[in-house]
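Changelog-adjacent note: as of this version, every example in the card shows the full chain rather than a window. The one below runs 232 residues end to end.
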Amino acid sequence: MKTALITGASRGLGRALARELARDGWTLVIDARGAAALGAAAAEIRGVAAPGASITAIAGDVADAGHRAALAGAAAEAGGLDLLVNNASTLGTTPMPRLADQPVQDLPGVFATNVLAPLALIQAVLPGLRARRGAVLNISSDAAVEGYPAWGGYGMSKAALEQLSNVLAAEEPDVAVWWADPGEMNTGMLRAAGEDADAAPPPEEAAAAFRRLVAERPASGRYRVADLAGAR
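Full-length structure tokens:
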């Protein structure tokens, strides 16, 4: 039985990917900040899970060290971790400002959630991932590599996450490290950013592509859903 830890799994891509892996029989540890939304997601995921799969839901903020310790502990209790999905993230300042107007005091919180929390979780579970030749999937964004007006604060944090992933891949040859761009998705986060979320594909499309990524285990590197979908 394989075990995955997925952060930000109460909605959007995290919830959709958790459903995909549960259908394949994975044991899951999932988190989100809102306990009620996470509980509803866990109930739904259990309803589609293959026989023998189990879902442990732990509410909390990935930026909190105590919560991260609880997640790592739950993964250890499940017998070890095969996959860490760093999906939880924050936009930061909303409405999203141009860099000339970006409140600098808001950025430490963005980096705490989008960069430092993923690194801390990686550090906490890395010995087990090495032993099981597991994988890390860091969810990035095209905002990490494109110059979109008003996406500077979020984009710079995702660029940092990508470089973190790039270096980790070089340092950990026994662990697959993927930093992946899901593209636009019809999610509350995209709507909160002021974009036309209704015109975007559902997160289930990206989740299906990432399920194939995990199953096929390609070399460490940067992947886009658009490319993964075209490679079927």
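Structural remarks: Helices lie at 12-23, 35-48, 65-77, 107-132, 152-171, 188-192, 203-216, 225-230.
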